[in-house]
Design brief:
Number of strands: 6
Distance between the termini: 42 Å
Radius of gyration: 14 Å
Helix content: 25-40%
Largest sheet: 6 strands, mixed
Strand order of the largest sheet: 2-1-6-5-4-3
Number of helices: 3
Strand content: over 45%
Structural class: alpha+beta
């Protein structure tokens, strides 16, 4: 059975959250475009641009976090040529130090198709207040 582009993008999106939840830097690295134009905006933080800076931001999050659980709910998926976006809510529960933190964010993940593979080029999470 051949997967549609939408199914492939949603599978990539699932892989992103699995890598996030498992704090798997190798998996995270395989999902992101290594381009200098890639951008990551963690909730409540400034934009981080370029893969090297993005990688460092994830490493810092993983280092500070003992445990993560993430539930997502897809709101919308759109594909236009070699660009796709997924809009969703993220329910993140994490343990940092001895504190249990829970947050719900709106997120947009933008993917670009390069050499028949979808890569994350933009992640933006904003807390829902």
């Amino acid at each position: 059975m051949v997967m549609t582009d939408e199914q492939i993008v949603l599978t990539a999106n699932q892989a992103f959250y699995r890598a996030f939840e498992k704090q798997d830097m190798e998996a995270m690295s395989s999902l992101w475009s290594k381009g200098t134009a890639s951008v990551c905006i963690h909730p409540g933080r400034k934009a981080v641009k370029g893969w090297e800076a993005i990688r460092t931001s994830w490493e810092q999050i993983f280092k500070a976090t003992q445990y993560l659980e993430i539930e997502t709910q897809i709101i919308s998926t759109e594909i236009n040529g070699d660009l796709a976006y997924v809009i969703l809510t993220e329910n993140v529960m994490q343990i940092v130090g001895r504190r249990r933190l829970q947050a719900t964010s709106m997120a947009t993940n933008i993917y670009s198709r390069m050499a028949n593979q979808w890569y994350l080029i933009h992640h933006h999470g904003s807390p829902i207040i």
